[in-house]
Design a protein that fits this description.
Layout lengths: L2 H25 L7 E7 L5 H15 L5 E7 L14 H13 L2 E5 H6 L11 E4 L3 H10 L3 E3 L2
Helix pairs in contact: 2-3
């Protein structure tokens, strides 16, 4: 056998192996784990946008049962969730998301600086006792994907 024929046969055999491996991998059912995402919100002017992103995220993956989302709020953005001044749209969307499983975290440092208690925020929030950035880091260490729109 000539060297060219050996090289051609070897290349064809390797190609066949890759094709067979590809077909095997494609035939296997895909069962991805439930994804985990943390949204970081600190800018007041981004509240509506981030709530819209969360809505789109739920719809894009097929619903809240397909993803775990945590919203961590601090800084000026927290003011948008004060019960006294929250817009009706923010209250409604936050309530709907919370009922669907969205975990709402309020930074304890921001709460202290804004002189608000948990009861002063729209329903559904829990306190990130050690602060927003610590909570975000904890979630990332647990495999959450970090998003800061």
């Amino acid at each position: 056998m000539h060297r060219r024929n050996i090289l051609t046969a070897a290349t064809a055999a390797i190609g066949a192996l890759f094709a067979a491996a590809g077909k095997t991998a494609q035939a296997a059912p895909v069962t991805p784990d439930k994804s985990k995402v943390v949204y970081h919100l600190s800018d007041f002017d981004k509240v509506d946008s981030v709530l819209g992103n969360i809505k789109n995220h739920y719809e894009g993956v097929g619903g809240p049962d397909k993803v775990t989302i945590v919203l961590v709020v601090h800084g000026s953005a927290l003011k948008a969730f004060h019960t006294e001044s929250a817009s009706p749209s923010t209250v409604q969307r936050t309530s709907e998301f919370s009922k669907s499983g969205l975990e709402l975290n309020a930074c304890s440092n921001s709460m202290r600086s804004q002189n608000v208690a948990l009861k002063d925020l729209v329903p559904g929030f829990v306190v990130a006792d050690r602060g927003a950035v610590v909570r975000i880091a904890e979630l990332q260490s647990q495999g959450y994907v970090y998003l800061r729109p």
